[in-house]
Amino acid sequence: MTVLRRIVRVAYHLFDRLLLGRLPYGAQRRLIAVTLRLARAIHPSGNWPSVESLLVRRALLPPPPSMRTLPSWAIEDLRDLAIRVDPLLTPELVLGRAPTAFIPPLHWTQAGHAYQRLRQRIGDGQFDTVILVPWLKRGGADLGALHHARACTEVFGHRTLVLATETGESPWAGRLDASIPFVELGPELSLLSNTQHEQERVLARLLIQLAPSRVHIINSHTAWRTVERYGKAIRQSSRIFSSLYCDELSPEGRSEGLAQHYLPTCHRWLDAVITDNSASPRDWCETLGADPALFHVVHFPAPDMPSAPNRQDSVAAGKRLLWASRLERQKRPDFLISLAKSMPDFHWDVHGSALRGNDPYLKQLGRMRNVSLHGSYERFSDIVSSGHLAYVYTTRWDGLPNVLLEAASCGVAIVAPNVGGISDLIPSEQLVADEGLLDDYAGVIRSLVDTETRGRWISKQKKNVSNFTWERFTAELRRVPYYA
Description:
By secondary structure, the chain is an alpha/beta fold.
């Protein structure tokens, strides 16, 4: 078997030199993957390498022999230097040591070609602000990117460019002002080598060449990795800002997310971290040792929402509840099921989509008699009615979610846990302690059946949300040094 492995290794290196190393990176990856699948099918117990490890070891193509020796002008320079500087530079002595030639990978041209194509798409315009997002689709961070792009262009007068760094649809790109160019980098960057950090190299080169006054990162992993590796170079001509909102929690309860991954290595290149709530910065200062002066709380503006419209329903008024979120672990759909079971005299309108078609929580909810499934929704005002007693929000972790700004603006009572920055909007005395138990949620919900209690509850929430205005958002941005 040892002889066979040696034969296979030699054959692979020959194949790499003659063909594989000359192919585009994407074709190399696909061809290696197919080859390894065949090898594992032939010899399942073999210790076969990974695709990434083979891409790292791909052979360099050496230059022709005529280019592996010093040219005559270099030899004459060495003779002159040997006389004027150091006798050890005598050409015969240098060449007699048989120096090894450094062969740069000049045949790896994919990153250069990708840069050229992307630079042509961006054009020769000068930009004051470049906002880096993974994509623009339905989501709180994406809405934040739209707010920042609008403020930079409409209020601060910046020439603004938005770059999407990941593959994926961007249906919300159409919400950008027509004067703001939006360029998708993801399709080009996804074909480049991860092991050679070509994505980061291309993005860094783009930012260095564009040289905007400020770069603003909003949820782009590629942008964070680029700052991690090339922050000092980018920082020579551009201020670097980021938006961070909250940590995620692993199933074991461990904090995860962009802040945990990148603040320890990137904080020295950042001018400011802009966040939508006051709770997350306190956590990051305590757990990561971050400087409190780095963080600036800028609350998103609440949308203009109509009051909850009247709607005729068969369920008695005061016994209908609204739940609208993604059916994923963060939003605790398992807890929603338990809560609905424990309150059979209340009817639940559940809006939201599952991450997969055969979601078990979706199936359980569909079988419950006091639950109506309505699927995904576009606007919160379309799903809330005056017949809803309350909007119940069962998140496990969060910053300050936009859906709560929408609910408060619609004038519906909100039942939510005291996690993250939710207390920036809703008074702490109206929040369920931490994640909350079934009895905690049920007790608050049943107390809202009383008309006077519900009226006071809604009045406090509407008073607080009235402070979340576009004017306050832009004023808070102006106070971030060097941003406006």
